[in-house]
Amino acid sequence: MTPVDDDFQHGTVLLSGIVGSTAYGLAGPDSDVDRLGMFAAPTLSLLGLHTPRDSHVTTSPDVTFHEAAKLARLALGGNPTASELLWLPDDLYERRTPLGDEAISLRTAFLSAPRVHDAYLGYATQQFRKLLSRDPSWTHRKIAKHARHLMRLVNQGHELYTTGHVTIRLPDPERYHAFGESVAADPDAARPFMADAEERFATARTVLPREPESAAAEDWLLRVRKAFWEG
Questions:
Q1: Which residues lie closer than 8 Å to 220 by C-beta, 6 or more apart?
Q2: Nearest-angstrom CA–CA distance, 48 and 109
Q3: How far apart are CA 124 and CA 184, in angstroms?
Q4: Tell me: the pLDDT tens digits for 173-190?
Q5: From CA 32, how far away is CA 102, in angstroms rounded?
Q6: Neighbouring C-beta atoms of residue 188, cutoff 10 Å
Q7: What is the pLDDT of residues 125-157, one digit of tens each?
Q8: Cβ(40)–Cβ(89) below 8 Å
């Protein structure tokens, strides 16, 4: 049972699991357990004037559930956070259904080189700019967390760009913690890493296509719509 089961009609959750720092292996004793999932809205509810929300987000605990079409659109756009749901280690899934497993089997169909490049390196660059802003309200702990996730986005994105696969559970979390502490002490310490990241992506040979297989994603979504015609 996930913490938001009561927010959905019985049986509409297609896939859910634990994501974020716990999934990466970066969680500390005070870290929250983040969850991400995908649900299917009743097809008939999408045809009227007032359509249902396509995302349900709660905090304490942190839980995000996207409707199937929204998650597919986010994944097709290369969104790292949404795509994470399709790449979790098996032990981190809390609910799997046949249609959820189909989405996992199609995860490479959602990929395209330009979108993965722009999403992962772009998000990392945003994190980098935030770090350099030296917001006085940011604590040492918050800066370190942003730095860890900057490094994660770059490394996972480069792996996905060059191999077509992404490893969610990081093999060397200690390196990320050390980087976070270094940047928290001096945000400029992130500059060499980001310069190297831009060079790595610029010189990398990608295995990904120029465009995702949108037709495969569309076929899957139509199967979802057929299965949940009335809910």
A1: 72, 99, 102, 103, 106
A2: 31
A3: 16
A4: 999 999 999 999 999 999
A5: 29
A6: 11
A7: 999 999 999 899 999 999 999 999 999 999 999
A8: no
